[in-house]
Amino acid sequence: MSARAPADPVARFLEAMRAERGAADNTIAAYARDLSDLAEHGGGDLLALGRADIAAWMAAMEARGLSRATRARRLSAARQFYRFACEEGWREDDPAARLRGPGARRPLPRTLSPEQVEALLEAARRPAGPGPAAQAAALRLSCMLELLYATGMRASELLDLPAAAARGDPRMLLVRGKGGRERMVPLSEPARAALAAWLAHRDADPRLRGAAALFPSRGRAGRLTRARFFQLVRETAARAGIDPASVSPHTLRHAFATHLLAGGADLRAIQTLLGHADISTTEIYAHVMQARLQALVLSGHPLAAGGDGSARPADEGAALAAGKGGGGPADPDGPGADRAAPRLDKRPPRR
């Protein structure tokens, strides 16, 4: 080990990740936790560990019941740290370079149907109790959920929005995403109406008027926290008759992407709207197209015709065309498409 190694190599590594790669705060915090876990397992000095030590750490994590995704992420953090250590000359070898990871399985995203989304938004619009405080909370929560579903923003991106970004009845919002990357996202009419209603209340309240955050809080961060927002979303899901365990702020991001894709949107466009750096991240939403492709084959492929050359009876393809039996949405080009996959500016009528 070189004498050039600093007293706190992890802190130096995290500084470099932030400065050179534009890593987000949440990413930095996750790397810090992962490397702390490795240091605790290995005796404290990360630069003194060898390949066998890291392999034993991986085995210990599996024995503790940690998921494949967690183990894969932690090994990734270790690999990046030791690669950085070699580049800086703190080590001559990379003990994590040839270790095989668990290979994180990518589960299909948990999402909501358009009807469930509308029920959730309707529940958010209703005050949870009597009095002006409950009415103000409903205005805020309704605005937040409308913005999430209209734009597909991450919860952290929504909570970090400055009030200045929402002034002037904008048709688009500038969002700062992971790594400091910026993108423009369009707003639906319901989202603009909810935003205008929240801003009117916010500007009339002297306690909120001067705050920099669009959704301010009296806490140290000066804005609503992710934990509190998560709690509010689950409480609202329960009031909407939806299993709270199946709903989080990120579920609305998944619903946004899934419903757009079912409505015929291009994957590249969805990638841009979501702020994904790699199209492979967006491709996970392609599962919603299965029913549409099956219905297309049944209606247009020669082998889908009856033995006499005539088209198959309608009942043989009806279930798939209606989104039944195939586990996917209805054909977005067929009847009722606007109900199956509402566009950003067109949702089922409010009840």
Automatic annotation (TrEMBL):
InterPro entries membership: CB, DNA_brk_join_enz, Integrase-like_cat_sf, Integrase_catalytic, Integrase_recombinase_N, Integrase_SAM-like_N, Tyrosine_recombinase_XerC/XerD, Tyrosine_recombinase_XerCD
Entry's localization field: Cytoplasm
Domain Tyr recombinase: start-end pairs: 107-298
Highest rank taxon of the organism: Bacteria
Main location: cytoplasm
GO-annotated molecular function: DNA binding; tyrosine-based site-specific recombinase activity
Start and end residues of each Core-binding (CB) domain: 4-86
GO CC terms: cytoplasm
Basic and acidic residues bias (residue ranges): 340-351
Region (Disordered): 306-351
Gene Ontology biological process terms in this record: cell division; chromosome segregation; DNA transposition
Family annotation (Pfam families): Phage_int_SAM_1 (PF02899), Phage_integrase (PF00589)
Catalytic residues of the enzyme: R154, K178, H250, R253, H276, Y285 (o-(3'-phospho-dna)-tyrosine intermediate)
Bias type Low complexity, positions: 330-339
SUPFAM superfamilies: DNA breaking-rejoining enzymes
UniProt subunit comment: Forms a cyclic heterotetrameric complex composed of two molecules of XerC and two molecules of XerD.
Family statement: Belongs to the 'phage' integrase family. XerC subfamily.
PANTHER family: PHAGE INTEGRASE-RELATED (PTHR30349), TYROSINE RECOMBINASE XERD (PTHR30349:SF90)
Function: Site-specific tyrosine recombinase, which acts by catalyzing the cutting and rejoining of the recombining DNA molecules. The XerC-XerD complex is essential to convert dimers of the bacterial chromosome into monomers to permit their segregation at cell division. It also contributes to the segregational stability of plasmids.
Protein name: Tyrosine recombinase XerC
Organism annotation: Oceanicella actignis
